[in-house]
Specification:
The chain is of the alpha+beta class and 370 residues long. Helices cover 46% and strands 11% of the residues. The protein is built from 15 helices and 7 strands. It has helices at residues 13-24, 62-78, 93-107, 143-147, 156-161, 176-184, 187-201, 210-220, 225-237, 241-249, 254-270, 275-282, 292-303, 308-318, 320-331; strands spanning 33-39, 42-49, 83-89, 112-119, 122-127, 132-133, 137-138. It is elongated. The N and C termini lie far apart (59 Å). Residues 1-10, 332-353 and 357-370 have low confidence and may be disordered.
């Protein structure tokens, strides 16, 4: 491997190291090694090496790091990475970073390798020529990420826990009557219900109730994928939309989890959230179920390191049928189908009714705490 120039300090080391938790959506622990791949000046794939849960007190060993580094190097080569930046964390971070970087040195064809260590709020860089670590610099606070609303979890465990089922937040499914009412609507109407429901629940100050989650869960598990994907599109294009999906997912009854998991994973990937979290969610999706194709698409996008905006474009292209259906009704001047059990949004009906009848007024739906 050609590492010419690797002894020169990379510009913005403190800023780069400070951004890592925001790129991952969680703060790496003291046994983690994070590897960033750059293609030219563009950030490419990100990999995390950490010991398995049963590793014991020894934590990350040289053999583990070598195996992980070799695998990371091969993957980075497939993505055309030109620069690798390896960051070790904690008191043992410098040694761990070297173990992983040395393994990648044998398997990766990157032109440049940078090795960093982060410990107690300081970032250090390895200087090849001096064969020593540079003096520590304070970690950059990454203010620009904070301003954009980024709030990394304290650990990977905390991040994933926020998407696990929580009994205290459980909500009941729709009744058989409510499900029949929803199913009786046209696909166009169901798309409109899904779109407006997500947007309403994402409004600042709105606290979704159990019935809101039930309607959302039923739509995410609709028999027609156009309806399911309208939930996804609304979540991706609405500020706070992914939070609405997460809130519904953690309390979902078993029969609603598959569809909600699929749209949540796709929405998270589309908005640039941690690929580790996204892949973990796709692992919960039934491989023989109706959402298997979406899970496969998400995994393929992750493997290819597809940019989130490109994934969103793919989703938009795949779901153009929804707009075509809605446009068809509008062009003919038709009113959306009406079902007696689905109240007009302008009427303050009980919360256990569907959120609205598409095409009605703009009043917020019933049963919403503000």
């Amino acid at each position: 491997m050609n590492d010419e120039g690797s002894s020169e300090p990379i510009r913005g080391v403190a800023a780069l190291a400070g951004a890592v938790p925001h790129l991952l959506s969680y703060r790496p622990d003291d046994q983690s090694v994070v590897v960033l791949g750059l293609r030219g000046n563009q950030l490419g794939p990100i990999a995390v090496a950490r010991p398995p849960r049963d590793a014991g007190p020894a934590g990350l060993t040289a053999q583990m790091a070598a195996e992980m580094g070799d695998q990371i190097g091969e993957v980075f080569d497939q993505h055309g990475v030109t620069t690798t930046i390896t960051v070790g964390y904690g008191p043992d971070g410098p040694g761990h970073a070297h173990w992983v970087a040395d393994a990648m040195d044998h398997s990766a064809a990157a032109d440049r390798m940078v090795i960093l260590a982060v410990d107690r709020g300081q970032v250090f860089q390895w200087d090849d020529r001096a064969a020593a670590w540079t003096a520590g610099q304070p970690l950059d606070p990454a203010v620009e990420w904070v301003v954009r609303g980024s709030a990394p979890a304290d650990s990977y465990q905390d991040l994933t826990a926020g998407f696990q089922p929580q009994a205290a937040r459980a909500w009941p499914p729709l009744s058989a009557e409510q499900q029949r009412e929803l199913t009786a609507l046209s696909v166009a109407d169901q798309v409109g219900v899904a779109r407006d429901l997500v947007r309403r629940l994402a409004e600042p100050g709105v606290t979704p109730g159990p019935a809101d989650h039930a309607w959302l869960g039923a739509l995410a598990n609709a028999n027609n994928v156009i309806v399911r994907d309208s939930v996804l599109r609304a979540a991706v294009t609405t500020p706070g939309g992914t939070g609405v999906l997460q809130s519904a997912l953690v309390g979902a009854p078993y029969g609603y989890r598959d569809g909600l998991t699929a749209v949540t994973a796709a929405a998270l990937y589309s908005t640039g959230r941690s690929s580790e979290l996204v892949l973990g969610l796709t692992g919960r999706i039934d491989p023989a179920g109706p959402n298997a194709a979406l899970a496969q698409l998400i995994r393929a996008a992750t493997s290819a390191n597809l940019e989130p905006y490109m994934f969103r474009q793919a989703i938009e292209q795949a779901n153009h049928d929804a707009d075509r259906i809605l446009g068809y009704h509008a062009k003919r001047g038709e009113q959306p189908q009406t079902n007696p059990g689905i109240p007009n949004r302008a009427v303050r009906a009980p919360e256990n009714r569907p959120p609205h009848k598409p095409g009605a007024g703009r009043e917020p739906g019933p049963g919403v705490g503000r």
